[in-house]
Structures are given as structure tokens and as C-alpha cells.
Amino acid sequence: MRKLNTRNYRLATRSTPREVNRQIVLNLIREHQPISRAELSRRMNVRRAALTDIVRELIASGAVSESAPSAAVRGRRPRLLGVRTSGRLVVAVDIRPGRTSLALADFSGSIVSRAAFDTPASPEELVEEVAVGVGRLLHEHTGGVDSEGICHGVGLVVPGMVDRRTGKVLYAPRLGWRNADLRDPLQERLGLPVHVESAPIACALARLWSFAGETRGVNNFAYVSVSDGVGVGIVVRGDVLRGEDHTAGEIGHVSLDPNGPVCACGRRGCWEAFACSAATIARYVEEAGGSRTNRAVISVEEIIRRAQRGEKAAIDTLTETGRQIGRGLGAVVSAFNPKRVYVGGEVTAAWELLEKPMREALIEGTLTDAAHATPVYPDANPAEYRLLGAVTLVAAPSFALPRVG
Ligand SMILES: [Zn+2]
User: Fold this and answer.
1) For residue 264, how far is its CA from the centre of ligand 1 (angstroms)?
2) How remote is the CA of residue 274 from the centroid of ligand 1, in Å?
3) Distance (Å) from CA 206 to ligand 1 centroid
4) Are 337 and 191 in a shared domain?
């Protein structure tokens, strides 16, 4: 049960029950598409006539489309309903230290075209480059025809903490940005709604709102991003945990050892300082020593390749990274008791090396049998998940329940 916030509430109006039912129908269509009206009414346990108006409304608004009728063996095959995704476009932007990727995608996350540029040093320059890039993508797609109404918004994913209410990047250690305003100046430049979110939260949202089958119905989970930094998106009862100032989930900067290595945030022994890509690379350089390990050219991908060729230093390095990821997972599982944990990042390509030491450290760091056994899955495509997360920022609100109370 949720307690009413008497200082921040929304009154129900005469149209509220209808809005709620409309979103329920939309979400059921989304989950079971393609679905006939008859099947939908069976699933909802209501008479078909009760759905007629709502379905008509959803089709009229462009949220739902229906297939053309086709002849069946006996009689007419029913028209099937599905969420309309094509023609509803989003620009997704994934900002990383070094490189920023742009993608024009539809509501389902299908990518239409892409672009990329080197991430500039200041937020002001970034806004400028993103504005130019978005304009170019839309212009190319529409052939110069007015794109108004085609693009529903721009989603930006950043490696840092974001206050969703203001759209400000509160702190991005690896970009060196504090209180950077990306949303408002971009919105002004583009005349489109702009949404900004931290990368792990956006990845968690992409999982939560995924059109693909596997994660549907999982409403409690954690998404751990292990890449340039380490961040966590926590989903509790179908919503992302944000906290009072929107900085919840910063477990990457919880210190596991006050005498540990110095972190990008300036403090010592953060989970991130043990588990991020730079930590893996530093460990490998130390482990391998000698001339074969030029730190400037070695990457996590290269260490994985060397491990796959059987090089001991690379195998030992990745095994240790698995253990370090597992140490932090113990804290995540203890604190939030997720149904599942997803781990994303380049390093997950070495899952067969990571898994065992990670599980051992997770068991060491948790107290119950169920916590020990919490399923942990690698994200098959983390780079794409950040872009999908950016798409979700724009697309998901249209499927969310109206907030009342
Ligand atoms: Zn830190």
C-alpha cells in the first residue's frame, strides 16, 4: 500500500477510470500482440462490447493498429491488434567518454539510421553537436520535408547522475561535468521534447519496457552496467528507484575498501575502481608485465581475445574482474533483493570466465539461500541497450499508467 503524499497529489477526474482502462488495454495489446478483440476480451474477462470504444479510441489516436482482414479457411479471419511502432520516430543519443552515438529509431527500437562523433569536452559543445546531428538525421530521413509530428522526441543517455525533474546532469565523473544542463538548451534548439537519463537507469528501463518476450512480467530487477564506470539501475514494482534527489543506485561509488585504488570520483576503493574497464586493464598490465602490454593500446576486448587464446595473464585478470563484480553484486542483492540481475558491458563477452568467481563472491556477500541463488544474466548487447534505453525514455511514457493520488 502506498501512502498519499498530501503535498504532492493528483486528483482523479471524471475521465480517470477511462484513462486507466485505456492504458490497461494498450498494455495488454502490447504484451500479447498480435491479438484479436475476442482473445483480448477473454484475457481481460470482460464482454467484447465493453472494449469496442476503447479499442476504437486507441486506433484513432495512432497508438494501436490493426491488420488487414484476410480470408481464413472457414469464414473471415479476425483483424489482429498491435501497438503501432512504425512511423513513430525517436532520436536516441548515447553519450560516452570519447564517443557519442546517435540513432534514429522507431518506437520498437528498430534503428533506421545512425551517426556518431567524438564527445566534446564541454556540455555546451555537446548540445551544439547533438542538435546538428539530430537535425541531419531527421533531414536525411524525411528528404527535407517538414519533420514535425514524425519525431516524438530525443532521448539522451549519459554516464552520470541525472535529476529527471530538471533534466540536469548532476555529476558525471568521467566527463568531468557537474550540474550540466543538456535538456533545456536542446529542447530550445530542436523544438522537440528531450529526456535525459543515466546510462544504467536507461538500460534498466529498456529491459522493463522491452517489446521482446523474455523480460516481460519481471518487475523487480537490477541492471548493473560495468563499462567505463560502474552504475546500477534498480527496478522495484515496475518503476525505477530514484530516491529523494534522483541519485539512488550509485552503488558503483560505494567504497568496498578504504585502502583500495583511487576512483574517478576522487575517493578510494569504490566498487567502480575495482570492476570498471580501466581497473581490468590496469590489472592485466600488472599481471602480464613486460613489453606486450602497452596500456594505451590494450582494451577489454583485446584482453578477452587473449584469454580466449589461452593466455594465463588475461584469464587471471578476467577471473579477478568477475570476483570484483560479484563483490558489489552481493551489496546490490542484499539491499534490494531483485528477482534477477542483468550485467551489461564489454567485459560480459567473457561471461564463461566471470560467472564462477562472480557467483562465489555473491554468495560470500549475501545471507540467505535465495539471495545466493539470485539469477545473474549477461546483457547480450549492452551498446545497443543504451540506445534502446534512450528510445524508451521517449516511448515508454505513452504506455505508463496515469498517476492519480
Ligand atoms: Zn568512486
Assistant:
1) 6
2) 10
3) 25
4) no
